[in-house]
């Protein structure tokens, strides 16, 4: 036993990474099937019971494709870009507390680590766009850069209200600070801004302008195929999972059961179950948003960000700070 | 592995990457090396017990300012004249340098995450975000104000350049 014990963190890490990749693959099917049901059609329902194995079939198809690198591309950055996209998102999960005991690392700057990784993730998209030497891809990459930098600003600001209340950057401390009430009760404005910024950061519809197929064919990943395309795909679905997980941790009590169930049998459920239920709820919410909202124009997107979301997040931060200083809102040790 | 060695490894990565920044012929590759260099410096900060500074280094420098650099280089296609030379390089020559540097960094990060060796930092104690804030708005208040003036001036200049002229056309 003594020989195996130092390996435990590695085993935990490997299991978490494997689970995340499987969840991302599974989400592809969940998304297509749910959209199908909401739009009153069937969706993929042929492979396996109810179509569950659709992702396996897709994966086999993708792996069977030609691994194509265009002659005119910048080879080094072309190959590097999808890895940056997938790895930065996977790295962010290192600071996520999945339950009371599960979680790779409890960094004291967990929230900053998450922000740092999301801001590095943009390199994947930008470099993919640039190295493809393709006008559609370049335009997609540029849109991604502008969009991500803009929305990152108030994504950070919207989370600072929570930091004020919890008095810590550590995600586990933030969850523990919500023992007596989730932060959504006072931080609903911050949560709204965070959700919008989160969708923009993971460039999902309605904010998927970097890959708007009506005008840019496939945007930054136009030239990608096979495994490299699969990595972008993986990054996108992991991104959705990550933003959902962060919303749950920051505003909806993380792995804690809801307060009104505190004395019932439900409170006995392990933290990881609550965490998964809440995260799944937000993932479904993202999918529902995708099916129901149209895509804005790019200038509308940026104007909305700077003229509406930034002031809102500043107001939220100011209001929270005042309420916190006057003692209306309690919180952790400050 | 001693924590000192981790620090010197990271410093070495920063050093080599910085040299590659000025010797790279390709502008985007140079910028990528700069990113690696900044990440390595952030790592050094972290090991020296300043996690807050390390986080901000990555978010602000590597994550925002250099994205703008890359953006500008992409936009104006600042490739120089050496483009064809790049494609004659062998597979190994393009991959070797960046791969070694980033792999070293990744190994260091994995080591820190696994062992949680952050508590045994080199000399000074861990500087928390709160202490940084108190220092900034205490003894260094004047510097903060001057920096904010500078930013305001930059903001005004940016507004002035982007403003439409009276004829309604962009300058």
From TrEMBL, chain A:
It is a multi-pass membrane protein. Its main location: membrane. It comes from the Bacteria. The chain crosses the membrane at residues 6-30, 76-97, 109-130, 151-169, 181-200, 229-252, 272-289, 301-323. It is found in: Cell membrane; Membrane. Keywords: Cell membrane, Membrane, NAD, Oxidoreductase, Quinone, Translocase, Transmembrane, Transmembrane helix, Ubiquinone. One of its GO terms (molecular function) is oxidoreductase activity, acting on NAD(P)H, quinone or similar compound as acceptor. GO terms for biological process: aerobic respiration. Its EC number is 7.1.1.-. GO terms for cellular component: plasma membrane. It is an enzyme of class 7 (translocase). Pfam families: NADHdh. It catalyses: a quinone + NADH + 5 H(+)(in) = a quinol + NAD(+) + 4 H(+)(out). NDH-1 is composed of 14 different subunits. Subunits NuoA, H, J, K, L, M, N constitute the membrane sector of the complex. HAMAP family: NDH1_NuoH. Belongs to the complex I subunit 1 family. NDH-1 shuttles electrons from NADH, via FMN and iron-sulfur (Fe-S) centers, to quinones in the respiratory chain. The immediate electron acceptor for the enzyme in this species is believed to be ubiquinone. Couples the redox reaction to proton translocation (for every two electrons transferred, four hydrogen ions are translocated across the cytoplasmic membrane), and thus conserves the redox energy in a proton gradient. This subunit may bind ubiquinone. This is NADH-quinone oxidoreductase subunit H. It comes from Thalassotalea mangrovi. The gene is nuoH.
């Amino acid at each position: 036993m003594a020989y195996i014990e130092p390996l435990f963190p590695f085993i935990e890490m490997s299991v978490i990474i494997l689970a995340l990749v499987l969840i991302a693959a599974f989400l592809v099917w969940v998304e297509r099937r749910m959209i199908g049901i909401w739009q009153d059609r069937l969706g993929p329902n042929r492979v396996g019971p109810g179509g569950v194995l659709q992702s396996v079939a897709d994966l086999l198809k993708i792996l069977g494709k030609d691994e194509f690198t265009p002659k005119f591309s910048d080879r080094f950055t072309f190959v590097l870009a999808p890895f940056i996209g997938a790895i930065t998102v996977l790295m962010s999960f290192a600071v996520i507390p999945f339950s009371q005991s599960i979680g790779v690392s409890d960094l004291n700057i967990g929230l900053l680590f998450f922000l740092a990784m999301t801001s590095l993730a943009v390199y994947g998209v930008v470099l993919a766009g640039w190295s493809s030497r393709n006008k559609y891809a370049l335009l997609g990459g540029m849109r991604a850069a502008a969009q991500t930098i803009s929305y990152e600003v108030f994504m950070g600001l919207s989370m600072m209200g929570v930091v004020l209340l919890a008095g810590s950057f550590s995600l586990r401390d933030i969850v523990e600070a919500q023992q007596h009430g989730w932060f959504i009760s006072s931080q609903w404005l911050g949560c709204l801004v965070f959700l919008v910024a989160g969708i923009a950061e993971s460039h999902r519809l309605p904010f998927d302008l970097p890959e708007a197929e009506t005008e840019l064919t496939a945007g930054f990943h136009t030239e990608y195929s096979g495994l490299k395309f699969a990595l972008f795909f993986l990054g996108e679905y992991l991104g959705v999972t990550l933003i959902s997980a962060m919303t749950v941790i920051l505003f909806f009590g993380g792995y804690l059961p809801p307060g009104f169930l505190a004395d019932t049998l439900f409170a006995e459920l392990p933290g990881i179950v609550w965490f998964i239920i809440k995260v799944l709820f937000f993932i479904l919410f993202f999918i529902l948003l995708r099916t129901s909202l149209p895509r804005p124009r790019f200038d509308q997107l940026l104007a909305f960000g700077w003229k509406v979301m930034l002031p809102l997040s500043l107001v939220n931060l100011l209001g929270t700070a005042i309420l916190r200083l006057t003692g209306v809102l309690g919180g952790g040790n400050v | 592995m001693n924590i000192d060695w981790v620090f010197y490894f990271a410093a070495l990565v920063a050093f080599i990457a910085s040299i590659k920044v000025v010797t790279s012929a390709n502008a985007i590759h140079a910028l990528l090396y700069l990113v690696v260099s900044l990440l390595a410096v952030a790592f050094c900060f972290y090991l020296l017990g300043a996690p807050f500074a390390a986080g901000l280094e990555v978010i602000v420098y590597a994550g925002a300012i250099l994205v703008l650099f890359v953006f500008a280089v992409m936009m104006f296609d600042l490739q120089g004249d050496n483009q064809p030379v790049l494609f004659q390089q062998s597979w190994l020559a393009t991959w070797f340098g960046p791969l070694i540097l980033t792999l070293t960094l990744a190994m260091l990060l994995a080591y820190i995450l696994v062992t949680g060796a952050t508590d045994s930092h080199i000399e000074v104690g861990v500087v928390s975000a709160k202490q940084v804030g108190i220092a900034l708005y205490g003894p260094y208040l004047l510097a903060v104000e001057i920096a904010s003036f500078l930013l305001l001036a930059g903001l005004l200049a940016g507004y002035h350049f982007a403003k439409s002229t009276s004829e309604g056309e962009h300058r």
